[in-house]
Amino acid sequence: MSCFTLNPHPVAVTGQGGLSARVAATPRGKRKVLFVTSEMSDFVQTGGLGEVSAALPRALRSTCDVRVLIPGYRQVLERQHAIEPVAHLPGRGEIPPCDLGRMTTPDGLVVYVLMAPRLYNRDGTPYLDIRGNDWVDNDIRFARLGLAAADMATGFGDPGWQPDNLHLNDWPTSLASGYLAWRGSSVPSILTIHNLAYQGSFDAARLGPLGIPQDAYCIDGVEFYGKLSFLKAGLQYSSHLTTVSSTYAAEITTPELGCGLDGLLLKRSREGRLTGIVNGIEDTWTPHHGGGGDTFDAARWKSRHADYVRGTFGLQLAHGPLFAIISRLVHQKGVDLAIEAADTIVAHGGQLVVTGEGDPRLEQGMRDLALRHRGAVGVRIGFDRNEARAMFAGSDFLLMPSRFEPCGLSQMYAQKFGSLPIAHRTGGLADTISDGQTGFLFGAPTAGGLNTAIKRGFEAFVSSSRLALMRRAAMSMSFGWDHSASRYADTYRMAEAA
Predict the structure, then answer these.
(1) Structure pTM?
(2) To which CATH superfamily is domain 293-475 assigned?
(3) Within a 10 A sphere around the Cβ of 472, how many other Cβ atoms?
(4) Residue pLDDT, tens place only, 180-202
């Protein structure tokens, strides 16, 4: 990519008449939306945001002309897509100028790529180096992303396409709404909060290097407890806020789960500018996908997968229930509560399989658990998508004792595969699990609360008729993206009218 060169001056969009043949025309009447994200499962993913960023833009294509903007990470550049140069974007403060490339995925989704090798072409994840530490220049890296989005919204991008709306996602993209406001633009921006706990906080001395006006460093701007907060900027300047479940939208307006931003979020909610829209999952998350039809036997299918999972994890063949944890191993996910509850599972004749990675102490706690219960508990530190899919298929119950969970996807995957989630009644878990019908919910996030719900699961397991009824109810749940996409399309129109 070292030969990627363009006109060094930004080109403003002046109309549609001079489009080159390479630019696909937007169908008449379709709103143009730039979906700005720091990860996308087509290329690189660290969590649920990557899956949403791949699925939601595609689901929106029936009603909107949606295109994605993503940094040019090494994982993006290594994919076998041709990247065509479309613009040169100016810098601001210490944010370097960069080139903008355009590619099209095999299914026709247009993806814009920020070509800034010095910022993005590195080993590691989008946020962390290979030692697991934050990149020291994360402020510059994601300010570059936000600035590029604002540039494209105001006509300095692809000369054949200018968005009507920006759809921003979490703190790495949040400064875009600020850059729009500081240049007096009226282009509406929607910020989706996938996890309020990650806020993008930096030293206030970084205002100048990031090209942020000094007068924006105030309570009604980017200042947050003496720091510069990217997320606070997004909450303050975006036209509308969404989050990924209705329950979480209410929870974040409270001191308990508002992460210090509850006052501002409550204000946005009272203004009608905060909406909860639950995520969806792909249609492939069903055992019927690819065949089966009316002859599908859920019990036999799950038994076959359960034997496979037991063998893979070195467990003894057994007739008791198989529990699974498929999660980042971090405090938020209540992994410590699950470690405590494992003794109850084993004592009642159950088994547990675990996959994930995260906090080294919790990883070690899981290893110790497997040693203490050889043949009954199996643990793999790491993550393999195919193995996780087999665990959803083979398990009877999925443990999700998250202390908070904005939306969650695993509980939806599990239900479609007939694994009944046992979860804390919070966020998207409360919105997508029907207690006693498609899973089991418990109140306070404590080991005692989780143990009580696990015992409810055992009671259902020993009643074959009830278990079959709950499995059928879970597997018949509808979690497709169409409804969510329709609500986002409505939100874009509402934000423009505001």
Answers:
(1) 0.89
(2) Glycogen Phosphorylase B; (3.40.50.2000)
(3) 12
(4) 999 999 999 999 999 999 999 99
